[in-house]
Write a structure and sequence with these properties.
This protein has 218 residues and is an alpha/beta fold. Helix content is 39%, strand content 11%. It has eight helices and five strands.
């Protein structure tokens, strides 16, 4: 996650990529958010659902088994212990993950602590995140059009519009002009063309400029 501070305005903006997007939502809406240092805006680049990526990347039986194992470990008081590598080796490779962390990402009950961006979440669930955004801290949301961790059939534009409407139903604001899908962009923009990168820069700079001069119109 990165932050920008305007030289002339002093405004502070957090920009998160992938898991960094969850960090920003948690920073703004999670427990204790009111006591955290004030920022002026946030940019979510590549806000991918870990659960849906895991569901699409793991054999269904392996996914179900890993969640059952994790739940049993948590119930036994071993939630901070590492899951057996065989339960997720085809997704995370050799990287260790605790039972509690696995469920925060992949819970089949759609209640994971970090499950913020799944397209199948209820409006009630979204109201606890996008609907709870502070009214004076607008967001810019940028999905990658060719994100390899997102089902190509998913309506990314539609999902962003849903988040915008949920935010409006609360007190939050999402920049409708500069938020959207970066067509041709992969998850981390690896190998992105100059045109794709220019599109990203244009949207980010546009959002920052609106923060500096026309925040009330976001």
């Amino acid at each position: 996650m990165a932050y920008f501070r305007g030289i002339k305005t002093g405004k502070i903006v957090l920009m998160g990529h992938s898991t960094g997007c969850q960090d920003i939502i948690e920073y703004l809406t999670g427990t204790g958010h009111a006591s955290r240092a004030k920022i002026d805006g946030g940019i979510l680049q590549g806000p991918v659902s870990d659960r849906q990526a895991i569901e699409g990347g793991l054999d269904p039986a392996l996914y179900a088994g890993s969640c059952e194992t994790a739940k049993a470990m948590v119930e036994a008081g071993d939630g901070d212990e590492i899951l057996p590598s065989k339960t997720m080796k085809s997704f995370f490779g050799p990287a260790p993950v605790s039972a509690k962390r696995w469920l925060s990402l992949a819970s089949p009950d759609h209640d994971g602590d970090d499950d913020f961006f799944s397209s199948d979440l209820s409006d009630e669930r979204f109201m606890k995140t996008f609907g709870a955004l502070p009214r004076d801290i607008p967001l810019c949301v940028l999905h990658s059009g060719s994100d390899e961790y997102v089902d190509p059939k998913m309506d990314k534009d539609g999902l962003i519009r849903k988040w915008i409407e949920v935010a409006k139903n609360g007190e939050g604001r999402i920049d409708e002009v500069h938020s959207g899908v970066l067509e041709g962009a992969t998850h981390n923009l690896k190998g992105a063309s100059e045109e794709v990168m220019a599109g990203l820069v244009k949207k980010v700079l546009g959002f920052l400029e609106r923060l500096q001069g026309a925040q009330a119109n976001l």
